[in-house]
Write a structure and sequence with these properties.
Elements lengths: L1 E7 L2 H18 L4 E4 L6 H12 L9 E3 L2 E3 L10 H10 L9 E2 L7 H13 L5 E4 L21 E4 L2 H11 L8 E4 L2 H5 L3 E6 L5 H9 L16 E7 H5 L2
Parallel strand pairs: 1-10, 2-3, 2-6, 3-5, 6-9, 9-10
Antiparallel strand pairs: 4-8, 7-8
Helix pairs in contact: 1-2
The chain binds 2-amino-2-deoxy-6-O-phosphono-alpha-D-glucopyranose (GLP).
2-amino-2-deoxy-6-O-phosphono-alpha-D-glucopyranose binds next to helix 5.
Length: about 240
């Protein structure tokens, strides 16, 4: 187990350092299987990768991209879907062909989600998982309580997640009440995990997740049990100001 925490000056430094980590994974395996979170935090990293790709410094076009989470009942063609955002902000700028996108099962039963988890494990698991952290300690949409054995499944969104998704939907009442998420168990099996957090509003939850007890009440705390985790924070996320 190896957990490294790096505190950087600001958001741009986190984005650049994060891009170095992803570039290292691509250099070692141009066909790596990557889970790329949506949310605001990793967008700078994705923009930096796109810049390097445009400059000919990086070829990410052989990656296989796996969806982390999705609002229930929202198809990939819906611009508010997380899959749509993944295509716009990660796949297209990096010239990754659409057929390299692996979507989560939709409107499935628990047997179908279990089959999905098995198919990922049989393919060799994820090479890299890029994560943000929700205000209540969720990773993906693994809302508390969720422990290290949580499988891929449909979940009810917590009031905190509905409130933080409201900005993408216009208002909280328009946010779907349910979502689908890759489970913590599948994420923890990844060869490498990269967690990004920036801003003083993440300070308390970052400290609970990284320094507190491993508990289902803070799903991100299970990262303390993963094989290899790189955490990149800006000063505000670490210090609170
Ligand atoms: C969202 C997503 C997560 C994301 C997190 C943090 O609800 N489900 O995958 O990492 O919240 O988002 P942000 O980076 O915008 O703070």
């Amino acid at each position: 187990m190896r957990l490294s925490i790096t505190i950087l000056k600001d958001y741009d430094s986190v984005s650049r350092e994060g891009a170095d980590v992803v570039a290292g994974v691509i250099a070692a395996n141009p066909a790596a299987r990557i889970v790329a979170a949506m949310g605001d935090t990793p967008q700078g990293l994705y923009g930096e990768l796109a810049r390097r790709s445009d400059a000919g410094e990086l070829d990410a076009s052989g990656l296989f991209v796996y969806q982390l989470d999705e609002y229930a009942g929202v198809g990939p063609e819906d611009p508010r879907s997380l899959a749509g955002w993944l295509v716009r902000s990660f796949m297209r700028p990096l010239r990754i062909p659409p057929e390299n996108l692996v979507l989560l099962p939709r409107d499935a039963d628990s047997a179908a989600y279990a089959t999905y988890d098995r198919s990922i494990a049989e393919a060799g698991g994820y090479d890299l998982v890029i994560l943000g952290i929700g205000p209540n300690g969720h990773i993906g949409f693994n809302e508390p309580p969720a422990d290290g054995s949580a499988p891929t499944r449909a979940v009810a969104l917590s009031p905190a997640s509905i409130a933080s998704s409201a900005r993408y939907w216009g208002s909280a009442d328009q946010v779907p009440r349910r979502a689908i998420t890759v489970g913590i168990a599948g994420l923890l099996k990844a060869r490498k995990m990269l967690l990004l957090a920036c801003g003083s509003h993440k300070n308390e939850i970052v400290r609970r997740a990284l320094l507190g007890p491993v508990t289902a009440e803070v799903p991100a705390s299970y990262l303390q049990e993963a094989d290899e985790v790189t955490v990149l924070l800006d000063r505000a996320a670490w210090n609170g100001s």
